[in-house]
Amino acid sequence: MTRLSDFPIATRWPAAHPERIQLYSLNSPNGVKASIMLEETGLPYEPHLVDIGNGESHLPEFLALNPNGKIPAIIDPDGPGGEPLALFESGAILLYLADKSGQFIPADPARRWETIQWVFFQMASIGPMFGQVGFFNKFAGRGYEDKRPLRRYVDESKRLLGVLDGRLDGRRWLMGDDYTIADIATLGWVNNLITFYEARELVAFDGFAHVAAWLERGLARPAVKRGLRIPAKS
Fold first, then answer.
1. Given this model, what pLDDT does residue 112 score?
2. Which of 16, 31, 63, 190 has its CA 20 to 30 A from that of 125?
3. In this prediction, what percent of the chain has a pLDDT beyond 90?
4. What is the C-alpha separation between 105 and 113, in angstroms, rounded?
């Protein structure tokens, strides 16, 4: 039988509570998907800070769990069949935790797949495009003399915000009255765009009234407030 201690990552980030889900992450827009979901579901877990700024996600112990070298990643010591399950990719983690807990994903097959498509929308579009805005607006890319890349990603981010705004017109959450993993996947990225990436005016965020109201509702949730800070650098 495989044990948590058999995973190389457990030597670098030892577990104080090996019976709990182990979260290896940072409170980045991708990382908080997992921490918010864990806080929302109430599943017992133990967070471990992976300092990506210091290259910790590229240490051999982390790469043994996620060869792509990205956070978040988890190990569930009580996975399918009672065996430990290691997972990376935030979308896969959300789906797994939704199924494990029976929360935040509809039981009806059609609505389940409708929810999953909005998770994929975040993974394939919102995250990559907003991330590029952050790079070209706040980080190394802001010094580039050629501003065409920034304009391209700003324009695409505005378009994506328009898609979200249309979806949220007349809906409280992306799936209507039901708060789901689609919202959890997306909240951190939208919040990051207008705060940490400092792009609120750049993308004309206040013109997307339905998105702004949805974000305010999401940020008011106690589990979201907690999840956005886990695991934070000290």
1. 98
2. 63
3. 96
4. 9
CATH fold group of domain 109-222: Glutathione S-transferase Yfyf (Class Pi); Chain A, domain 2 (1.20.1050)
Q: Which architecture characterizes domain 4-103 according to CATH?
A: 3-Layer(aba) Sandwich (3.40)
DSSP-derived pairing of the beta strands 21-25 and 45-49: parallel
Chain position carrying tokens 């790469």:
63
Domain boundaries, the chain: 4-103, 109-222
- Label residue 1 by pLDDT band (50, 70, 90): low
Q: Which helix (H) or strand (E) holds 164?
A: helix 148-168
Residue 233 DSSP label: P
DSSP code at position 232: P
Q: Are the beta carbons of 39 and 47 closer than 8 angstroms?
A: no
Q: Kindly report the pTM of this predicted structure.
A: 0.97
What is the structure's pLDDT at 2?
78
Pull the structure tokens for residue 49.
């800070």
What's the whole-number mean pLDDT along residues 77-104? Answer: 97
Going by pLDDT thresholds of 50, 70 and 90, the confidence category of residue 233 is confident
Number of other residues whose CB lies within 10 A of the CB of residue 201: 9
Q: Is 119 helix (H, G, I), strand (E, B) or coil?
A: helix
C-beta of residue 92 within 8 angstroms of C-beta of residue 36: no
Residue from 205, 136, 194, 199 nearest 164 by CA: 205
Q: Provide the pLDDT for residue 219.
A: 98
pLDDT for position 138: 96
